[in-house]
Design goal:
Length: 283
C-alpha cells in the first residue's frame, strides 16, 4: 500500500538516512503521490543531502498537486530564505503565514532580510507579525532592530520602550536609539532605568558630552573612578575634554597624561594645542 511505502520513507528519514529514503521513494508506487507528505519527505531528504535546488523542486511539485497545504508552503518559504531569495520570501510570507500559530517563521524570514541589508522589508514583515503576536517580545525586539538598521531610530526607540521599562539591557539600547534620534532628554530618562552602574555611567557621560553639558559630565569623575571606568581610555579622554570645556585645563592635562593609545594620544595633542592657545590668548 502507498501508505506503507510512505511510512518506510519517513522511517529512513527519522533514522537520518536520506539516501535510503530517496531509494525507497523511487521504489514506491505512483499512488504515493496522493499524499502531500510524499513531497515533504523528498524535500527533506534532498535538503539533508545539501541538494537545496532539488528540495525546492520537490516542494514546488507538491504545491502543484496540493496548493493549499500549509506545510508545503512554509517549507518552501523557508527554503527560499536559505537559497538567498529573501525578497521573494518576504513577498510570499504574509500569505503563507496567515494562519501561523507562532511567530518563528516570521522571525526567520525577517532575520534573512536583515542579513541581506533589507531592514525596511524586514520591518514591514515584523509589523504584521506584531499585529498577530502582540505579546511576543522577540518580535518587538527584532522590529526595533530592523527599524534601527533602517535609520528609523526614534521609531525603534518607541517600539522598544515598553520592554525597556522592565529590561536593563533594553533600557541601555533604547537610550542609545534616542541618542541617535537626537532626543537626548528621552535618552537620559531611558539611561536612568539602567541598573548596571558601569554601563549606565559609561553611557551617561556620552549623553552629557553630546548635549554639551560639560559641568555635569566633568562631575561624573569621582563615580567613574570608583567603578574603575577610568581604565577605559576613551572615557578618560572624554572626561578630560569635559574638564577642558569648563576651563579646568591643568586637571584636563593630568588626565591626558594618562593616555597611551596611539589614536587617543594624537587627539590629546590637538587638545593640548587648544589649551596652549587659550593660555596664550589670556583665556
Amino acid at each position: 500500500e502507498a501508505r506503507t511505502h510512505l511510512l518506510l520513507i519517513q522511517s529512513q528519514l527519522s533514522a537520518k538516512r536520506p539516501d535510503l529514503a530517496l531509494n525507497a521513494l523511487k521504489a514506491a508506487p505512483a499512488s504515493v503521490a496522493a499524499f502531500p507528505e510524499r513531497f515533504v519527505a523528498e524535500a527533506v531528504a534532498h535538503h539533508a543531502l545539501k541538494d537545496k535546488p532539488s528540495a525546492f523542486e520537490a516542494l514546488t511539485r507538491g504545491l502543484e498537486n496540493f496548493p493549499g497545504q500549509s506545510i508545503l508552503r512554509r517549507r518552501r518559504l523557508l527554503l527560499l530564505v536559505e537559497l538567498g531569495l529573501a525578497r521573494t520570501a518576504a513577498e510570499e510570507a504574509p500569505t503563507v503565514l496567515a494562519d501561523a500559530e507562532a511567530p518563528d517563521d516570521f522571525l526567520t524570514v525577517a532575520t534573512a532580510l536583515r542579513e541581506i541589508k533589507q531592514p525596511l522589508e524586514a520591518a514591514h514583515l515584523l509589523e504584521q507579525a506584531r499585529l498577530r503576536f502582540p505579546e511576543s517580545e522577540d518580535v518587538v525586539t527584532q522590529l526595533a532592530l530592523a527599524d534601527h538598521e533602517a535609520g528609523r531610530h526614534l521609531t525603534a526607540a518607541e517600539i522598544l520602550l515598553p520592554l525597556a521599562l522592565v529590561d536593563d539591557e533594553k533600557s541601555l539600547f533604547a537610550a542609545e536609539l534616542y541618542r541617535r534620534a537626537k532626543r537626548l532628554r528621552r535618552a537620559t530618562r531611558a539611561n536612568a532605568r539602567v541598573a548596571d552602574q558601569k554601563k549606565k555611567l559609561r553611557q551617561r557621560l556620552g549623553l552629557l558630552i553630546e548635549g554639551q553639558r560639560w559641568e555635569l559630565a566633568a562631575g561624573l569623575e569621582d563615580r567613574l573612578a570608583r567603578l574603575g571606568l577610568l581604565d577605559d581610555q576613551e572615557l578618560l579622554y572624554a572626561l578630560a575634554y569635559a574638564h577642558y570645556r569648563v576651563g579646568r585645563h591643568p586637571h584636563a592635562e593630568s588626565l591626558l597624561s594618562r593616555l597611551t593609545e596611539p589614536e587617543l594620544f594624537e587627539r590629546a595633542l590637538v587638545l593640548r594645542k587648544a589649551m596652549a592657545s587659550c593660555r596664550d590668548g589670556g583665556r
